[in-house]
Amino acid sequence: MLGASLALIGLGVVPVGAEPAATGEANAQRPNILMIYMDDHAAQTIGAYGSAFGPTPNIDAIAAEGMRFDRAFCSNSICGPARAVTLTGQHSHINGVRDNRGTFDGSQATFPKALAKAGYETALFGKWHLKSTPTGFAHFEVLRGQGPYYNPLLLNENGQKKHRGYTTRIVTDRALEWLEKRRNPKKPFLLMLQHKAPHRNWQPGPEELGLFDNVVFPYPATLFDDWATRNRGCREQEMSIAHHLRDNYDLKLAAPGGLDPEQLKAWNAAYEPRNQIFRANPPTGEARTRWNFQRYAKDYMRCIMGVDAQVGRVLAALDAAQLSQNTILVYTSDQGFYVGEHGWYDKRWMYEESLRVPLLVRWPGVVTAGSSDDHLVQNLDFAATFCELAEVPDGMQTQGQSFVPLLRNIEPSEERDAIYYRYFEKGEHNVPPHHGIRTRSHKLIRYPDEDFTELFDLESDPNELRNLAADEEHQTLRRDLESKLKALAAKYGDLLP
Amino acid sequence: MQRLRFLTASLASLLPCPPATSDREEGGLWVIDSSRFLDELLNRRTR
């Protein structure tokens, strides 16, 4: 771990949030920040982003009252690493969490610590998933590891407590109790509400078990992608809707463990009638893939709708406490996800569906309601952004760029022309390590193990089906993007294989 | 307006094929074509 800021000089690290400010109670007018942080929530499944699965009315309300970012991305599409980047504003090779095996070094600088030092009361509820004990929070209640969908154990700074019920609701209950009764009202707050949903294995809550029963979900155009022209890993992956969803665990042909008798009864009432139809005449081939997709996508969306209902409760609670006006509400996810696109579930790849994250920001009086922004932003930017919003006096060393100017509808002094991405993990789902850059119009991805390159024109080929890297006419563009990739790796201090 | 938005979005993402035989047990209507269901979802707005 890099302990000294000296080591960061030259690695694209810049101090941010250095606007002069007093600290503590003198700054009670500084805005509160409430971050709703999802796990694997694909932007394309949110109504405000044009979901083909219907509206998500409460999440959509944030977009209607705030700003929707249309080019927001992660920098390493997997849970632990994405969370570490979000907290530190440093790429994975700097913050030390390169893959899900990594343990977060809580001694390093994070934005919750910076805000706490600047007088904010900080609290965290829900999924943490960084193995080490949370630091920088005056209070936390977090799931152990991935945590269950039902009846979670929440760890806090003094011990742990078992709760009964659906985790999405419980985590919201705990956060709202803190918001309404436990925080210090004399201080501005940072509240991080981090849901487990909609992470695998997509167990719906009791209120959503029957939702979508009588409709059919549209199939993505690339459900039967043949992965022609792309890297070998696409054909060797183990995350396909057709072959890799587990019957009982993922597709709910058996009830999950951990439910109490009442929960199990409700679960079986919802799933068993359809499971019996399936067992009587199980579809095969393409029909089985379609059945898998319907079961998977509906469960995924049921989890989303469970969160959506809780988002409505949060919005109502802010209104009731007269906090809406001075609270910046951020809705985002650690990374995106495949909901059948390219024939897949899961994440990891640098293709759009898992690279892109939803990002909605409501800031009454500053952000224009119902607006959108198409600048390139990343989870790398949250630390810088929050430090600027909180007027952190000494700033924080990060590799990101504050997107506060974009919220204020001001053109940034330095516009990013490409984002940098690197996926390190080699293991689960058999996705090969890769790295690349994405500009506003193109994407270049390198697969070092295979010595293979992909180049996509995102304007003419938004589904990334035609790899142009070997085309004669695109060689100049390829060389330009390769140079840009090397320059960005050097800027961030990453040593590419 | 919101319903119109989703119907428009559905055209953009239109599929290679209509509901297949295996979809019949699920109800046979695309989610985006079901006005009643869209209303049901919109009514979940709790604020």
What layout of secondary structure does this protein have?
The complex is a heterodimer of chains A (497) and B (47).
Chain A: E1 14-16, E2 32-38, H1 57-65, E3 67-69, E4 72-73, H2 79-88, H3 92-95, H4 111-117, E5 121-126, E6 139-143, E7 153-156, E8 159-162, H5 167-182, E9 189-194, H6 232-236, H7 261-280, H8 285-320, E10 327-333, H9 352-355, E11 359-362, E12 371-373, E13 377-378, H10 382-389, E14 396-398, H11 404-407, E15 419-423, E16 434-438, E17 442-447, E18 452-457, H12 475-492
Parallel strand pairs in A: 2-9, 2-10, 3-12, 4-13, 5-6, 5-9
Antiparallel strand pairs in A: 1-14, 3-11, 6-7, 7-8, 10-11, 15-16, 16-17, 17-18
Helix pairs in contact in A: 4-10, 5-8
Chain B: H1 2-12, H2 35-42
The major sheet of chain A is characterized as: 10 strands, mixed
Q: Total number of helical segments of chain B?
A: 2
Report strand % of chain B.
under 5%
Helices of chain A, by number, come to 12
Oligomer state equals heterodimer
Task: Report the average pLDDT across residues of chain A.
Answer: 94
Report the portion of residues of chain A in β strands.
15-25%
* Order of secondary-structure elements of chain B: HH
Largest sheet of chain B: none
Could you describe the 3D structure shown?
The complex is a heterodimer of chains A (497) and B (47). Chain A is an alpha/beta fold. Chain A has helices at 57-65, 79-88, 92-95, 111-117, 167-182, 232-236, 261-280, 285-320, 352-355, 382-389, 404-407, 475-492, and strands spanning 14-16, 32-38, 67-69, 72-73, 121-126, 139-143, 153-156, 159-162, 189-194, 327-333, 359-362, 371-373, 377-378, 396-398, 419-423, 434-438, 442-447, 452-457. In chain A, the strands form four sheets. In chain A, strands 8-7-6-5-9-2-10-11-3-12 form a ten-stranded mixed sheet, sandwiched between helices. A four-stranded antiparallel sheet of chain A has the order 15-16-17-18, covered by helices on one side. In chain A, helix 4 packs parallel to helix 10 (382-389) and helix 5 (167-182) packs parallel to helix 8. Helix content of chain B is 40%, strand content 0%. Chain B is built from two helices and no strands.
